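Example record

One chain of 289 residues, shown exactly as stored in the release files.
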Amino acid sequence: MSDLFDFGERVGRYAVMGNPINHSKSPMIHTLFAQQTQQSIEYTAIHVDLGGFDQAVGNFKASGGKGLNVTVPFKEEAWALANERSDRAERAGAVNTLKFIDDKILGENTDGIGLVNDLTVNHGCDLKDKRILLLGAGGAARGVIAPIMEQQPAEFVIANRTPDRAVGLADHFSDLAQKSRCRIIGCGFPTLEGQQFDIVINATAASLKGEVPSLPNDLLNENAVCYDMMYGAKPTAFMAWATNHGASQVLDGLGMLVEQAAESFYIWRGVRPDTQSVISTIREGLNNT
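Predicted structure tokens for this chain:
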């Protein structure tokens, strides 16, 4: 993607598209990034009706828009719409960041690098040579696998309520596992019985329902880290489970949200914002709600 980091345009309009979108923190995050880096941007949230994504993107681009963040349920449609994609986006089969340069629509997936940066930089978690468990085999899981594999864990297990989906996902990334000298396995939740992990990442939607996947009580190694991609004012059900089962660090996905946004901002503007201050601001706002 030779044009991905072409920063000739210094002032532009950006937005996040999704359905629903009212809850999105992206406008606040990118406004804080712009203030911090002295960039002049306009960033809005756009609700898109199902079936109307391509037209909405076309309208935004035609009106002078320079880039988009894309959230559920349009990440796969964004992948199909992009006529040039990064390796990360190609592997993920989903795009959460679009950049428009002339007639090109460049697609990237920053979710995985956002998760890795939050774990490794913000929380000091070394992923190399660790046994990592990823719960879930949907789009959220798929988008983070390649960047985690690049950290060279010893073993990567994907567990899902439907085992076939987890096995298929492991097969899809098997060549990357060979390059990283990492074993990758897909399985159902019952197969986790008797296994222990250093890092457990919840990519299921169970937390939205206040639920936790069926997990063994002895799943965590000593000093294990548990991470939920969801976040909120209160700990998620998975975070509560992790605390009750002795995890040394229990983390939510707010840092991932800000870090993936920072990567998008860099793609668009060529400037890397400081994420710590923005994470603190968003966290304070959550705690005061």
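Notes: The two ends are 41 Å apart (CA to CA).
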